[in-house]
Amino acid sequence: MSISLEEIYNHTKERYQLKLLTGTNGLTREFTWVQLCEDIGNCDFFRGHELVISTGLASMQENWLQDFITELIRHRVCGLILNTGKYIRPADIPPEIIDFCKEKHFPLFTMPWKIHIADIMQDYCSRLLHAQEQESRLENLLAGLLSGGSQGEKCQQELTARGLLNLPFQLVVFPLTAAQLSHDQEQLIRLTCKRRLNHFTRFYSILCHARQILLVFGQPPADIHNCIIELSQDLPADCLSGHIGLSQLYDNLADLPTALKEARAAAATARLQQTALLSFSELGPYRLLFMSEQHSLLQQMHREKLQPLIDYDAAHQSQLLPTLRAYLFHNSSLQETARLTFTHRNTIGYRLRKIKELLGCDLDDSEDRFSYMLAFYIADYLQLTAEDCP
After folding, report:
1. CdaR GGDEF-like domain: from which residue to which, for each copy (predicted)?
2. Mean pLDDT in the chain?
3. Between 20 and 30 A from 349 (CA), which of 102, 134, 259, 377?
4. Which residues of 325-338 are buried (b: 16+ CB within 10 A; e: fewer)?
5. In CATH, what number is assigned to the domain containing residue 226?
6. Nearest partner of 2 among 39, 35, 27, judged by Cα
């Protein structure tokens, strides 16, 4: 939920007789405020993402418009409305300026002099404040859902009243590298997300929650994977772990806590596998483990199956545990296991005989092989959950 130049332009272009001259590709940008500016020297006061209105009062100076727009772009202003008719006419805007703004994806509008600047500024500021209030309230409601309990129930009731509870959504988790973002870092991430997400969907929410950035995609796009990858390339790399998790698609926001658990599991597995993005549906057997509440049982199963090898390797500086893993996960192939472990085939044969002796198992039996493969999946899961603990 946000407000972009495209949205406000489409809603108000007839009322204020706005004409977009160029910069269509920049219309998805968020704008945070509307500002009247005539003096290029005042550009240093911009914080970024303002929509600027100018009457062209300084148009008697040579190259003023080129210099003015260059400074606006340098200060990350999102667009310019020229109030034409008194100090500058539409015909005074040269093709070179149009081409420059197009190249920079900088929206340039004209508005006739008869439109009162005070009216459009008051209207736009009011719309911005309303959008910010709605956005903040939605974020609070979603955070309340994640809290659960009576607070979660109250948030469900309000979302139902707003007609938002039965909304298809997916959740994306971007784990953070720092315990807490600075205000400037959080604002940069929010504005970057909004600029990119406005290309893909009109309903989304951004939350900072427990060392994570959460993106809730309402009515997620079909190419959500590409959207996430493109977005991740725009975000500041020093703040994020680089491993992203995506939940399954749900049709009710009441399932947000489950979606968060899924997305966190996918992000953790992406870290294990050293890949940029994984969805929960791609996790295979890990899905059962991450959704299990029987943590102590999983620890017991892991110990029962693999502890003898762990103890033997520690006492003899041997490699029985990684050998068994490579053997099981590569179709019980001696040749492939030898290649992966950089070990002679005969040595692999000796290790497997020792493994069978220590474990008392039959690796030719499918049930035994499955139980030990499951134990290795559990080992990965226990490692991931231990790393996620503060």
Report:
1. 165-268
2. 90
3. 377
4. bbbbeeeeeeeebb
5. 3.30.70.270
6. 27
